Amino acid sequence: xxxWKNLPKGFLMGIVELIPGVSSxxxxxxxxxxxxxxxxISHVVSKHYKNAIxxxxxxxxxxxxxxxxxxxxxxYMLQNHMIPTHWFFMGxxxxxxxxxxxxxxxxxxxxxxxxxxxxxxxxxxxxMSLFSAEAPDLNSVGMSMGDLIKYFxxxxxxxxxxxxxxxxxSLVLLxxxxxxxxxxxxxxxxxxxxxxxxxLISTGLGIVAGVLLASRAISYxxxxxxxxxxxxxxxxxxxSVFAIYPGFPITAIGWIISVIVFAAGIAISCTLGKYNNxxxx
Length: 281
Prior knowledge:
75% of the residues lie in helices and 0% in strands. By secondary structure, the chain is mainly alpha-helical. It has one domain (4-77, 109-245). α1 packs across α4 and α5 runs antiparallel to α13 (226-244). The model has no long low-confidence stretch (mean pLDDT 84).
C-alpha cells in the first residue's frame, strides 16, 4: 500500500521548489522525512526498490500536482506581491535554524571546522545570489538537440542540489537562465500546448538522474560525517536568505504585511520543527 499520507507533504515540497531560493529539502526537514527521503531515493535501484517506491510515489505525485497547479499562482504572487512573498519564505527558512541547532547539539559537537563550514555555506549562497542570468525570449524558446541537452544537464544539476536543505534547485536554474523557460513550459503544458513537451521531458529526465546520483552521496556523507554535514546545512540555510531577500518594502502597508508574513513564516517553521521533535537529518 502506498503511503498516501505523504501526498500533502509532497505537495508542500513541490510548492516551495517553485520559489527560487527555497529548497524542497528544507521542507522535507521540517516535515521530518528528510532521512527517509534520501534513503528511499538511494534504494530505488536496489533490492529494496518496492519499499522505496511505496514511500516515494505519493511524494512525487504531490510534488507534481503542486508544480502543475501552483505554478501560475506562484508566478502571480512573485509578479504582483514579490516582496511579501519572499519575506514569508525568508521567515520559513530562518525558522528551521532552531531545529537544526537542536538536533546538531551545537554546544557539544561543534568545533572550529564546523563553524568554518557554516561560514563557507553562507559565503557560497551569498556569491550565488549575486549572479542573475538574462531572461530568455520566451517567444522563441530553443528546442534544438543542443537546447534539450542543456535542459537535461540543468535539471540534473538542480536536482542534485535541491536535495540539500538551503539550496534551491529553482535558484540554480535561475542562475543558469533555464528557470523562466521551465516555468513557461509548465504553464504552456497546463494550457494544453504540447509543443513544450520536449523541454519538460528533457528537464524531467535530468532531474531523475540528478536525484538518483546525489541521494547516495548525501546519504554517505550524513552517515560518515554527520555533524560536519549538519554544520554545512546550517550554513546553507543561513546563506539562502541572501538568495531569497527581495529588498525592503516601500510603503508603510508593505512593511506591515511583510513583517506579519515574515513572522508567520518563522512561526510555521518553528511549530513544524517542534512537532517533529524526533526529526533527524
